[in-house]
Amino acid sequence: MRFGKAHRIDPPRAGKLFLAGLLVAGLAAAPIFLGRLVIVPAAAASPTKEDQHPGSTLDDQVDLGVTVYNSNIALVRDVRQVALPGGIFDLRFMDIAATVNPATVHFRSLTEPGRLGVLEQNYEYDLLDPQRLLQKYVGREVTLVRLRQENGTTKAEEVKALLLAYNNGPVWKIGNEIVTGMNADHIRFPELPDNLFSRPTLVWMLENTGARRHRIEASYLAGNMAWNSDYVLTVGRDDKVADLDGWVTLTNNSGTAYRNARLQLVAGDLHRIMQRYNVDEVGAARMVAKEASAPQFAQESFSEYHLYSLGRRTSIADKETKQINLLSGTGVPVEKLFVVEGQQFYYHNYQHPGSPLKDAVKVYFKLKNDEKSGLGMPMPAGTVRVYQADSKGGVQFVGEDRINHTPKDEILSLYIGNAFDVVCERKQTDWKKLSDRLYEMEFEVTLRNHKEAPITVEVNEPIGGDWQMMESTYKWTKTSAWAAQFQVPVAKGGTSVLRYRVRVRW
Questions:
Q1: Which residues contact 43 (CB under 8 A, 6 or more apart)?
Q2: Which of 1, 197, 263, 423 counts the most CB atoms within 10 A of its CB?
């Protein structure tokens, strides 16, 4: 509900509706303000629903575990110490994730599981705000308050009003009149409605065989928590060794904070049939210093996944992105590759017949994720950003690539971009039909190296059908049923020509 600037409220008929009354501050000991709405507990008000039943907040928390998955969910295990009465009663469990999936909630007593049973379970998410408060007060009486200045003093004028309806604005009954379109500085409510909550709350109807303190655990899945891996590979000027730092980027948009929690991360492709939750995209990780701290996660195989456990407790605020070091490796051997990928169609230059086609020469860095290389830890999927030292002693960004989940002892191949100083041109120089289904073709690949050092270019050529290599100017390897690979050395400032002839039966 929106109120305009304060002005005098005239009655629908003669006389004043608002009589001078007490000041606003003097009407209650502890008013609750919701914009221009004020909740003032009455002195003789009956106990509210929250007063009648025990509740638990973060002050009762004695342990907390959070396991975050790649699929934007987290498993929360919240342990609290709570004094519970005997018999049947409702327990309000507050300070939970706003994105909790109620179907996944599990409650148990760690003290005496057999003496505390769950009869019903409810997730209350009808949250307190000015609009919902007015909607809940339909059919009830409130106090409308107007403030005015008189001789330099703020005066409060008030009137009792019955809220008849709240659809596109309030409809009041004041005395014997029905009134709409009124402006007031505040609306005062005697109490909070029983079925309106200030925060998401789990409510259990419990049966306890005797009053005592219980250590209780509530576990549930919550959405809008995500983590991903970011890696920084810093390559030396010689292209031979590099330093690798891995970081976990954790984002919490679940609607609550997790204080002093045991944090675990699960990497792997988790199959889910539940509705996916949205999650804000995480920006790129910041660049880290070369002298990284020791890895803080202990890794273990878990079912068909990998589990990473942080070796200390941490706190995760709501609406926070946190980064934690995952792994560090120094002096990691790397290999720089120049690669040409052949085309899977005929090499026709339709715009300039007879002229060669130009292919990109791709640049890769390869390294092995093993202990000998200073690594050997399963690496979760993520983005690897590659930097390289320049002649002035600084480092420059040279490219990035995304890796899949990579077990230890596997090869990482990182595509960082295309070579500027290496040129590849190709054309088909011959084509013959030897019989109805037998053909012979010749191709020419020219490589020019304008770099200040010799290089070797890996040329991968797709070849269809039942093929046979007839001749080649360089050694070749059959890498699959439909591909051949050539290793072509090119001298500094030199040119090399790969020419091969292949016979194909279709």
A1: none
A2: 263
